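=== RUN LOG ===
request id: a7f3
mode: sequence -> structure
chains: 1
length: 239
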Amino acid sequence: MKTFLLFFALALVGPLFQAISQELPQISVEGQSEIQVMPDQALLTVMLRATAMETAKATAELNKKAEEVTAALENSGLRGYELTAENYYVNVNRVYVKGSSRDSGYVASQTLKILVRDTGEKLLSIVQVLHGSTDLEFQIAYQLSAEKKKRYGEELVKLAIADARVKGEAIATALDINEIVVHRVSYQGGQSFDPVVYRAKGMRMEAADAAVPPTLQPGEQTLSERVHIIYTFAQKAPR
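=== RESULT ===
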């Protein structure tokens, strides 16, 4: 019975609060912020493939390539990177010729991820090591570390709120309103920090003597944020 009475009371009070809120004089503004940042780390995605007429041979060849990459990185003496392996597949090697297909052995594939917390000399050194290790394809995606994402995310929100405040006060001044008060704040969040891919097509070197290290120059990323704020104010009494 008590639960029913409480629900009934809320059902009556809810529309009342909504009506009061709608009657309040309001100024609705959208605050925006934007900053330019430089990525502080890079993710190298290495794609390895091996083809053979038997699954065991294709797998063995793939494992050999993965070991060559791992050994090359370890023997280079470089530190400060994280190497992980994922997406290991062995599939039928289906060849398509003039509208028809035929099976020609098996293809094994695997993806290696190398996270480098540096976008300068250390990254360039690792790229040179990869060029000389084995025949492979890889690409580089510049990105922000978790620490920078958090710091820039907080800064963007503060700047967006400050922008909303400036706009709200400008409107109030133009309308001869003495003071505005925050009534409601709407913020969705979820700012996307998309990595910038360097040569999305991938980089491929057929032989070590053909390896020419690229010039790695990460560009700035533009980060933005928005926040919607509704201000209320006291109406002047009619003269």
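=== NOTES ===
Residues 146-174 form the longest helix (29 residues).
Residues 33 and 160 are 5 Å apart (CA to CA).
=== END ===
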